[in-house]
Amino acid sequence: MRWIPLVVLGLMGLINLGRGAIHAFSVDGGAASIAGLDLSTSRETILSLFATLGLAQMAKGVFELYVVARRRDLLALFLAMQTFDTLLAVANLYLWRPLPVSVPGQPFNLVLLVLQVLALLIAIRRAPSGPAGPAAT
């Protein structure tokens, strides 16, 4: 079970790189072709926002993969940040400002949220309890 947080963060890194690339570089950012959003009004604004989201997802994915490969001591921190990010996305998609159509990201993010919470709980249980810095004198 100790490997679960590492695998979940690694998968999230790859997912963030993939969906970020779609949002940033596909012709419609996935807004129409994947999410089914109407781009007939405010197309430039929607595509710009999708590209900004995608670039941020790609940056996050790079750092998550770095943690998996080189800085496993930061695993719980990065899982916590990803879990909080997914929680906010789910809250937005379902409660705060839901989209006018059902998008694939809605149920997918619910599944990811459950996996992330479980991985975070495992990571926290095995994390060292003391501060990481030098001891105070």
Summarize the structure in words.
By secondary structure, the chain is mainly alpha-helical. The protein is 69% helix and 0% strand. It has helices spanning 4-25, 43-70, 75-96, 105-126. The radius of gyration is 17 Å and the shape is elongated.
Describe what is shown at a glance.
The chain has 137 residues and is mainly alpha-helical. The protein has helices at 4-25, 43-70, 75-96, 105-126. The longest helix is centred in the middle third of the chain and has 28 residues, at 43-70.
Distance between the termini: 37 Å
Q: Please tell me how large the radius of gyration is.
A: 17 Å
Biggest beta-sheet profile: none
Order of helices and strands: HHHH
Task: Count up the helices.
Answer: 4
Write down the overall mean pLDDT: 92
Give the strand tally: 0
Task: Jot down its keywords.
137 residues; mainly alpha; elongated
Question: What's the layout of helices and strands?
Answer:
Blueprint: H1 4-25, H2 43-70, H3 75-96, H4 105-126
Helix pairs in contact: 1-2, 1-3, 1-4, 3-4
